[in-house]
Amino acid sequence: MEIIHEYVKLRSEFGRQCLFSDRPAELLIDVPPNQKLAMQFVLKETRDLGVQGCWEMSEHEVNTERFEYDNEGINHVEGGWPKDINHLEMEQTIRFRKKIEKDEIYMNSVQVLGTLVGQCVGQNNAVDIYQEYFEEEELLDETQEKPCVKIVNVYRDPHLVKRHVTCLSWQPKGGTKLAGAYCCLELQKANIDMSQESYIWDIENPTQPDITLNSTTQLICLKYNPDDMHALISGGVNGQIVLWDSRNGHCPAAITPSEESHKDPVYKVLWLKSSSGTDAFSASTDGQILWWDVRQLNEPIDRLILDLSRKDNQDKALGAISLDHNVSMPDTFLVGTEQGAVVYCNKAAETPAERIVRTYDGHHGPVYAIQRNPFFSQNFLTVGDWGARIWSQDIKESSVMWTKHQTDYLTDGCWSPVRPSVFFTVKMDGVLDIWDILFKQNDPTLSLKVRDEALCSLNVHEGGCRLACGSQQGIATLIDIKSGLCTPQHNEQELLGEMLERETKREKVLRAQRGGDEGGNSEDTQKELILRPEYDFHNVVESEQRRRQWETRTQHYP
C-alpha cells in the first residue's frame, strides 16, 4: 500500500521564483566606532583570580556505554515476488509457495533457523528477564501504614434528659444516613418526661436529626433493610415490633399488637434473606424468638422458646439479648443469652425440640454481641463480661481464641466487613479497641478514648472505613478509619484461615485429652490435681526464701 498526499495550490500564489548563485563578498555598510562611547569604559589592569592548590580533575568509577534508542516506522507492502508472478492472483501465489516449500534450500534454512528459535524459546522459558523479584515486598510496604482513626462528627440527643444510644444501623448500599435507637435501660432512672423519640442522622449534618421517629415506646434496637434504603424495623421496651418507612414521615408504618408481641423488651431484631425481602425475626428476654412478615404484623409466622430442656417451657427459657444470622446459612442462627450461653439453632428442624442444636458456655455474664466472621462462617465472635471470644461452630466446650480479661466490661463488638482478621469492641470506660488477631492477640492494635462515659453500642459501615459508637449520654460519635485498618492485606484471608484451623485442631486435641482423663479418672487423681497447685506454690516460696538467704550470706561474708 502506497501513501500519497497531494498539495493543491495555484501557481500565482507561489510568488517569484528564487534563483540562487555564487558571487564574491560585498561590503554593504561600514559603521565607524564612536569615540564618545569609549569614555564610558574604564580600563582595569589588575585582576584577582582564585587558584586551587591541587590539580582540577574529574574521576568516575564506572563508565558504561549508553544504548541509544531510535523510534522508526515502516510501511509494510506485499513484495518480494518474482516478476512473472502477479501477487494479486491467489492461485499464482499459492502455486509459488508450494514450489518454494519443496525446495531443499528452503527446508535446510527452516531447520537451521528452527533450532535457533527453539534455543531462544527455551531460554525465555527458563529465565524470565522481565521478572520483578521484590514486587510483592514493595506492595506490602506501600499498603502497610500505621493504624490510625479520627473522630469526625458527634451527634447529640436534642432532649435535656439524656438516654442511652442502645443501637446503631447504617443505611445500606452506600447510604449517608445513620439510624440510632435511644432508650433508658436503667428503669429506676426512667420518668414520664423522658422522650420516646429515636433519630435518623445525616452524617454531614450533626446539628439536628434528619428524621425523627415518633414511637409510642422507647426503642432498644433497629435495623435497616439491606434490600431497601428506606425501610427499618425496630423493637421497643414494651415488646412490640415497629416497621418504619423514612419516606412516609415520622409515624410508624405498622406495629405488632401487644397480645402477639414479646412480653419483655426486644433487644435484637434482624432482617432475613428471602425472595420477598420482608422477613425478619426478633429476640427478647422473655425467652422467645419470633419470626415476622412485615407485610402482615398481626401475628408472628413462627416462634421458638429457648428452653434448653427442649420442653417449650417459657418459665425456664433463657433470655435472648443478641442475634446473628448468616446469609449463606439461612436456616441457622445464633442467640446470645443474658445467662452467658450461646445457643445454636436450626429453624428448618422438623420438631421444636430439634431446633436447639447445641450451646456454647464461655461467658460469666450477658452475651451483648454475637456475629459470624464475614469470611469464615464457621467461626463467630462473642462479646460479654470482661472479654471477647472467637468460637468454632464444631467445638462447644471452649472457644478457640479469646482476649485477656479487661479492667472494664465490654458492651458491644463486631467484625470488620472488609478485613477478615480485624474486629472492634467498646467498653464501659469509653474506650474503643481495634483488634487485629494476625498482628497480636494479647492486646488491641489500637485503642481510642472516645467518650468519658460508657459506650454501649457499635456499628461499622459496610465499606469498612467508617464506624459509629453510641454512649450512655445519648451521643453518637462518627469515627473515620484510615486505610491501614480498612484495606485488605496481602494473603490476609489465607493466613487467618490457617490460624483458625490450627486453633480448632488444637482445641479438638485438648478435648480428646480431657475426655481420656475423665474416662480413667479416680478419686486419687482428682485429689492430686487439687493439691498440685498448692504444692507448686510452696515450692516457689521456699526456693525464693533460699535465694534471699544466700544473697544475705554473701553480702556479710564476701
Describe how the helices and strands are arranged.
Layout: H1 35-38, H2 90-101, H3 104-126, H4 135-143, E1 149-156, E2 164-170, E3 177-183, E4 197-202, E5 211-214, E6 219-224, E7 231-236, E8 241-245, E9 254-255, E10 266-271, E11 279-284, E12 288-293, E13 302-305, E14 320-326, E15 329-337, E16 341-346, E17 356-361, E18 367-372, E19 379-384, E20 387-392, E21 401-402, E22 410-415, E23 422-427, E24 431-436, E25 446-449, E26 455-460, E27 466-471, E28 475-481, H5 483-486, H6 492-519, H7 523-556
Antiparallel strand pairs: 1-28, 2-3, 3-4, 4-5, 6-7, 7-8, 8-9, 10-11, 11-12, 12-13, 14-15, 15-16, 16-17, 18-19, 19-20, 20-21, 22-23, 23-24, 24-25, 26-27, 27-28
Rg of Cα set: 41 Å
Characterize the quaternary organization of these chains.
single chain
CATH level-4 homologous superfamily of the domain at 149-483: YVTN repeat-like/Quinoprotein amine dehydrogenase
Euclidean distance between termini CA atoms: 107 Å
Tell me the name of the CATH class of the domain at 149-483: Mainly Beta
**What's the helical proportion of residues?**
10-25%
Shape: elongated
> What is the strand tally?
28
The CATH topology of the domain at 149-483: Methylamine Dehydrogenase, Chain H
Write down the overall mean pLDDT.
Answer: 84
